[in-house]
Amino acid sequence: NAGVTQTPKFQVLKTGQSMTLQCAQDMNHNSMYWYRQDPGMGLRLIYYSASEGTTDKGEVPNGYNVSRLNKREFSLRLESAAPSQTSVYFCASQGTGRRASPLHFGNGTRLTVT
Amino acid sequence: DQQVKQNSPSLSVQEGRISILNCDYTNSMFDYFLWYKKYPAEGPTFLISISSIKDKNEDGRFTVFLNKSAKHLSLHIVPSQPGDSAVYFCAAYKNTDKLIFGTGTRLQVFP
Q1: What residues does B109 pair with on adjacent strands?
Q2: pLDDT value of position A31
Q3: Cβ of A108 and B104 within 8 Å?
Q4: A100–B102: do the CB atoms touch at under 8 Å?
Q5: Residue B96: its pLDDT value, please?
Q6: Dist CA B67 CA A104 (whole Å)
Q7: Cα dihedral B61, B107, A104, B43 in deg (nearest 10)
Q8: Which mean pLDDT values do the consecutive 10-residue runs of chain A (114 residues) have?
Q9: Residues in chain B whose beta carbon is closer than 8 A to a beta carbon of chain A?
């Protein structure tokens, strides 16, 4: 049982380059999320998708775009990477009964922008 | 503006003793609270939760206490084990579906 799968695990970009972080879940969950983790800042929500076809901004959406391709997949795109986007990115999914259903996280993508 | 705060970045506890991790929040609209545990190179995993209508929830060695008047919650681990060494995040929901996380506390349990 894979749960939430994120690719790639590591990535180094130069300033101005673009890339897409991929996330897929096999738990038939409706909701999916992208968080970033930075030292001393905890986990901050970038974007989320309550269901297929819908997306909403979180706390720190600037510089990112997302696509909910289907129920399984939720991708995060950096159009023009900046050093401030150096972080560890986590994707998560959640079933119904929102608050009582915990988030299931992937193992993260460590991104460095030089 | 950090709405969920964990003021202790780290905590060191001897095996077998109690670990107490603290969390404060600023918004009285938060009504559901959770604790997540994170090992290095892995994603966070759910540990325990509590609704604002309760003041205590227990699951094995883990107990979460909620003091709404003080806007404070704590996680007690008794007895602490070396495998409990990890980063612990508290998190809270308010009247939206967005889960807000604290900054995390690194717990180290030593023999």
Answers
A1: B13
A2: 92
A3: no
A4: no
A5: 65
A6: 27
A7: -150
A8: 91 97 96 93 92 92 96 97 97 82 94 97
A9: 2, 4, 6, 9, 32, 34, 36, 41-46, 49, 89, 91, 93, 97-104
Q: Which residue numbers of A have CB closer than 8 Å to B's CBs?
A: 4, 31, 33, 35, 40-45, 48, 50, 58-59, 90, 92, 98-100, 102-108
CA distances from A112 to A12, A18, A39, A105 (A): 5, 12, 14, 20
Question: Chain-wide mean pLDDT for chain B?
Answer: 94
Searching chain B, which residue's CA lies closest to the CA of residue A5? Answer: B43
Q: Which residue of A has its CA nearest to B46?
A: A102
A97 contact partners, CB below 8 Å, separation of at least 6: none
Q: Where are the beta strands (DSSP E) in chain B?
A: 4-5, 10-14, 19-25, 32-38, 45-51, 56-59, 62-67, 72-77, 86-93, 99-101, 105-110
Q: Which amino acid is at B32?
A: Y
Query: Is A43 within 8 Å of B6 when comparing Cβ atoms?
Result: no
Q: Decide if pLDDT at B44 tops 80.
A: yes
Structure tokens given for B42:
């892995």
Contact by Cβ (8 Å): A81, A19: yes
